[in-house]
Amino acid sequence: MHEYILSLVVWVPILAGVLVLATGSDRHASLARWIALAGSLAGLAVAIPLYSDFDTSTSAMQFVEKTPWIPALHVFYHLGVDGISMPLVLLNSFTTVLVVIAGWQVIQDRVAQYMAAFLIMSGLINGAFAALDGILFYVFFEGMLIPLYLIVGVWGGPNRVYAAFKFFLYTLAGSLLMLVSFIYLYFQSGGSFDIQTWHGTPLGMTAQTLMFLAFLLAFGVKVPMWPVHTWLPDAHVEAPTGGSVVLAAITLKVGAYGFLRFILPIVPDASEQLAWLVITLSLIAVAYIGLVALVQSDMKKLIAYSSIAHMGFVTLGFFLFNPLGVEGGLVQMISHGFVSAALFLCIGVMYDRLHSRQIKDYGGLVNKMPVFAAFFMLFAMANAGLPATSGFVGEFMVIMAAAEVNFWYAFVAATTLIFGAAYTLWMYKRVVFGNVANPHVEDMSDLNAREWLLMAVLAICVLGMGLYPKPFTDVMHVSVVDLLAHVAQSKLP
């Protein structure tokens, strides 16, 4: 079982997606939904042993599989996870179950295709997190764009085609630079696409700098970092609720993961030389994008900009070069997965009832949906970084790490706690409190059982991680320390 566990994690959701597609037309929509739910739960079930059987005392890759794939080019089907990638695989498998349940009643057209797109994308993203071969990673990294492009372009809002094209072109442009870097590394490493071999390949400073910039663009677009972030608000606003959840909770994390798997270990000297660039872009994202979020009138756009600010914390933590910062960035990635998923689901609940995302169309919601208002309050507080919620843990770790490096980094980073509270709570106040301003709000009903289940599960995750983050940090600690040791000792001759 153990030797094929990662293949199961990758292929179970993909095969379930193909099976869902086989149900065909919407006459069998109910069957498609149940197969999708079974497939997503199976995908989560096969991923759980990754955590339960994980050895936290080593930084070596675990559950490794290696089979020749394209022997002429020395390309292998090579999978493995460490303390950095394993939590992200679990987060992805968990989120897939949520989006299948979230789209249960809401999606009425092309149900099988909708559910299949999420399942297939889940398998491809797991593949990207587990791939230890450059070409295999590239195939998974590009492959996951296709289902997401379809989700936004087919089931999205009025401007969905524009948003889907913009998202696709931005990401593809960055990926091509990454492919060129991979080909260069293949020749420099003596004809190997093995990512771990690349970690020890000696490179000159010029080559490192050029590759650093190529990787920065490829993964920076995906995160997304300022100033290549403009595709994200458009994609979020047009995407269906499930699309927004996966986009925020998972696909952005693939970009951040690329920093730790490729940039820091492969071009360590350039990473240290150019850390100021990433730190500057991250701090601009944290402070400036927080102000941009303040003036949004569309709830989805507000949370989309909030995502960019929170992901700025992740990239900032990675380039402080201390364990607290990198672990803080990783904790922030997982926390943001929970919190952003919860907030987009909350907006989806309101949108399903009133078909508006405009803040001004709501008001007094607590009078009609008190249970929903309570859940929404918890997630809003987590987004603002309230202690005892998951949103606080990662941000606090990164701020502490930044203070060790430079007081002003920590000072600017800490402004997010003010801006985050400002835009999140101002939105919450206008939507939930006050008198019922819109007569349509009078007719809104509180959470049904399916929605309540989604909210309760995410509430447990947000509070559990906020109160007891140790299970998360224990898993990643040894891998992070080993990565930073590799960066520190890898000085140019």
Helices and strands in order:
Blueprint: H1 5-21, H2 29-52, E1 62-70, E2 75-81, H3 86-102, H4 111-130, H5 134-143, H6 145-155, H7 160-188, H8 195-199, H9 205-222, H10 231-238, H11 241-266, H12 268-273, H13 275-294, H14 299-318, H15 323-354, H16 365-368, H17 370-383, H18 390-405, H19 407-432, H20 449-467, H21 470-489
Antiparallel strand pairs: 1-2
Question: How would you describe this protein?
Answer:
55% of the residues are buried. The chain has helices at 5-21, 29-52, 86-102, 111-130, 134-143, 145-155, 160-188, 195-199, 205-222, 231-238, 241-266, 268-273, 275-294, 299-318, 323-354, 365-368, 370-383, 390-405, 407-432, 449-467, 470-489, and strands at residues 62-70, 75-81. It has 493 residues and is mainly α. The chain is globular, with a radius of gyration of 22 Å. Strands 1-2 form a two-stranded antiparallel ribbon. α11 (241-266) packs parallel to α14. It is built from 21 helices and two strands.
What labels would you give this structure?
single chain; 493 residues; mainly alpha; two-stranded antiparallel ribbon; 21 helices
**Compute the gyration radius: what is it?**
22 Å
Quickly give the structural class: mainly alpha
Strands, count: 2
Largest sheet, if any?
A: 2 strands, antiparallel
| Spatial strand sequence of the major β-sheet | 1-2
Bin the helical content: over 70%
Number of helices: 21
Distance between the termini: 44 Å
